[in-house]
């Protein structure tokens, strides 16, 4: 065993840096917290290459005296506590005295500071003081951290992409800004300003600058207090939700913290008003006596111990529940109402445009003829009303050259005109709601050709019973019989399976067919989310979503895959983008799988939907061709089986004899 010896100060600081400084965002957090503790009113943060090249924090705080400047970079040197008692009533954000020496041990640091008189500048690299000299400086501190991790390159291999690291910086700056709305904070990356708060003490204004003013308009103020705690902040209406908990900010005496119990309390305050898997946007500021909280638990001070945590959780839940109970929670339906209105003249014009250009755009007609609310194994634009607002192709056609006149229907008699008859003979195919080709099924012409999958298809059909449809039960279950007994099918799960296998193939093929939007979809996100999405634009493009940057915090979508359900384009896009934000490691294959499951569920018939005999029989026939006809994409069973023996036992047609019962006894 080697001899015991004391580690050098530089090595000790580098070890401490492993706990305190995980990534560039950790440096930003520590330096901005120091600026806040110094009583700053304005803090400017300048970052290059996501903080790996440069992190500079400029504040107008109290500054540091020249004779204490070098001491500030010694480990456990601090101005915020003096004795053991102070450790249990910490009011400042920092107090350990570890941040500056840890940062200086793994970077090249230059600090210029002044308390109002002559300034001082110090240069430290790798934990060693290179120079200290007088300098011209205004009141406050300017600290520049360059070449982070330059002397511990092994740390660099754990860094993510530049956009990911930058999003971490933006996120922590957002949290600090929410905790201190009275301070003007700006963040600039590569000479581009990413965010700026006004510093007027208006929390709602800060929320608006981070998440957007449209979202700030859907936030509700909360206030409550008892003998130990004071609660304030904003929570969103139930209609404004996100796919992860990352949009809930907990502030304890101005410090951003992570606490599972309090986060759960916020969610419980909404009760059943939130959809499964959705979370509110919330900024909850908790004020309490410092004696009731222990911040000396974790090096980053984001995890704390709170005395009377259960009582505080109950107050948070009750405060949010009481606030929501006062509100009219009916979402504004005006937009949806306008979207659903039909202008007969406009529909006639659109149909005329389709007629005039049918020869060159036959793909539109094949989708516009199907009926709404019927079971389809293939996604379709279901009605004229649904197609009109989204089909930009209808409005992009060039005027007719006169070779074919448009058909205009003004009255019922016009349906019997010669032009309509010619149109029907040329374009319209006789169809029922279920005679569209099943995904993967062969056309009549193709059936004559030998297929390599024929043997596999026969095997699938052998596994699936030959069902004879009987009827429907409560608009939800289909009853069918076979030679081996009774089968009950869940109609929603059955069509989910049929749809899923279609979408899995359609999304995987990434067809060039795109539906242009008359009115493009604009998606607004916070800066940190924008950076995460930018990193995943290739993944989104792989499933047909081509997002273009549209301003500093927005994306625009001008077209979408044709398999999107009409009327749900924006919701579908937002849900797919939420997957990227929720799980940044999502692969293209996983993304396609989730998209297929989502679309299959959206397009499937629901419970209490009554089908006629033809529709029910067609659904069963389509289910036979599925690769896995036994489970829906979520794993639920599609059908259950009662054998003849099971039925006879239930009706006591088969009973065990008294003799057999006595022998068992």
Automatic annotation (TrEMBL):
Keywords: DNA damage, DNA repair. The lineage of its organism: Bacteria, Bacillati, Bacillota, Bacilli, Lactobacillales. CDD domains: HATPase_MutL-MLH-PMS-like, MutL_Trans. This protein is involved in the repair of mismatches in DNA. It is required for dam-dependent methyl-directed DNA mismatch repair. May act as a 'molecular matchmaker', a protein that promotes the formation of a stable complex between two or more DNA-binding proteins in an ATP-dependent manner without itself being part of a final effector complex. GO terms for cellular component: mismatch repair complex. The keyword DNA damage applies. PROSITE patterns: DNA_MISMATCH_REPAIR_1. Residues 207-325 form the DNA mismatch repair protein S5 domain. Residues 469-611 form the MutL C-terminal dimerisation domain. The keyword DNA damage applies. Residues 352-408, 425-454 are annotated as: Disordered. Residues 357-373, 380-390 have a biased composition (Polar residues). GO terms for molecular function: ATP binding; ATP hydrolysis activity; ATP-dependent DNA damage sensor activity; mismatched DNA binding. GO terms for biological process: mismatch repair. Residues 444-454 have a biased composition (Basic and acidic residues). This is DNA mismatch repair protein MutL. Belongs to the DNA mismatch repair MutL/HexB family.
């Amino acid at each position: 065993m080697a001899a015991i010896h004391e580690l050098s100060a530089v090595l000790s600081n580098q070890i401490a840096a492993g706990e305190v400084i995980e990534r560039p965002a950790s440096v930003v957090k520590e330096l901005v917290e120091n600026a806040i503790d110094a009583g700053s009113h304005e803090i400017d943060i300048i970052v290059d290459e996501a903080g790996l090249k440069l992190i500079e924090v400029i504040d107008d705080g109290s500054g540091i005296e020249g004779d204490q400047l070098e001491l500030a970079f010694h480990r456990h040197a601090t101005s915020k506590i003096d004795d053991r008692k102070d450790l249990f009533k910490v009011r400042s954000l920092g107090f350990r005295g570890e941040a500056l020496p840890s940062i200086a041990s793994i970077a090249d640091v230059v600090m210029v500071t002044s308390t109002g008189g002559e300034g001082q500048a110090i240069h430290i690299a790798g934990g060693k003081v290179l120079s200290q000299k007088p300098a011209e400086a205004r009141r406050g501190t300017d600290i520049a951290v360059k070449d982070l991790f330059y002397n511990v390159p092994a740390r660099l291999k754990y860094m993510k992409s530049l956009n990911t690291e930058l999003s971490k910086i933006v996120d922590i700056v957002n949290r600090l800004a929410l905790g201190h709305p009275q301070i003007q904070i700006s963040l600039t990356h590569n000479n581009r300003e990413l965010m700026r708060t006004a510093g007027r003490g208006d929390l709602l204004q800060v929320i608006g600058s981070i998440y957007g003013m449209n979202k700030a308009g859907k936030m509700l103020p909360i206030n409550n207090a008892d003998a130990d705690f004071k609660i304030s902040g904003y929570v969103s209406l139930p209609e404004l939700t996100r796919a992860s908990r990352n949009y809930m900010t907990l502030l304890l005496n101005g410090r951003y913290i992570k606490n599972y119990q309090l986060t759960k309390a916020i969610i419980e305050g909404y009760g059943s008003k939130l959809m499964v898997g959705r979370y509110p946007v919330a900024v909850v500021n908790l004020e309490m006596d410092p004696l009731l909280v222990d911040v000396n638990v974790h090096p980053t001070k984001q995890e704390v111990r709170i005395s009377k945590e259960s009582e505080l959780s109950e107050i948070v839940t009750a405060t949010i529940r009481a606030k929501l109970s006062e509100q009219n929670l009916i979402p504004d339906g005006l937009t949806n109402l306008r979207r659903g209105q039909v202008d007969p003249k406009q529909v006639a014009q659109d149909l005329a445009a389709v007629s005039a250009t049918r020869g060159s755009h036959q793909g539109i007609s094949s989708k516009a003829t199907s009926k709404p609310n019927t079971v389809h194994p293939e996604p379709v634009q279901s009605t004229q009303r649904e197609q009109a607002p989204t089909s930009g192709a209808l409005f992009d056609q060039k005027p007719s050259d006169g070779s074919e006149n448009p058909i205009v229907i003004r009255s019922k008699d016009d349906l019997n005109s010669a032009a309509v008859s010619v149109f029907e003979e040329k374009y319209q195919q006789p169809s029922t709601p279920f005679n569209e080709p099943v995904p993967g099924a062969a056309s009549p012409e193709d059936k004559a050709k030998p297929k390599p999958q024929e043997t596999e298809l026969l095997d699938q059909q052998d596994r699936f019973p030959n069902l004879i449809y009987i009827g429907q039960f409560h608009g939800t279950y289909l009853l069918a019989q076979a030679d081996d007994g009774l089968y009950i099918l869940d109609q929603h799960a059955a069509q989910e399976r049929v749809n899923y296998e279609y979408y899995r193939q359609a999304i995987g093929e990434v067809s060039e067919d795109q539906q242009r939007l008359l009115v493009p979809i604009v998606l607004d996100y916070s800066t940190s989310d924008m950076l995460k999405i930018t990193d995943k634009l290739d993944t989104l493009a792989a499933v047909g979503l081509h997002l273009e940057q549209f301003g500093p915090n927005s994306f625009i979508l001008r077209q979408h895959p044709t398999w999107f359900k009409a009327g749900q384009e924006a919701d579908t896009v937002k849900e797919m983008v939420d997957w990227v934000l929720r799980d940044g490691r999502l692969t293209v294959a996983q993304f396609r799988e989730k998209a297929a499951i989502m679309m299959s569920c959206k397009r499937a018939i629901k419970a209490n939907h009554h089908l006629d005999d033809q529709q029910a029989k067609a659904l069963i026939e389509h289910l036979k061709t599925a690769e896995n006809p036994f489970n829906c994409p979520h794993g639920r069973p599609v059908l259950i089986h009662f054998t003849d023996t099971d039925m006879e036992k239930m009706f006591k047609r088969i009973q065990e004899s008294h003799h057999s019962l006595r022998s068992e006894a």
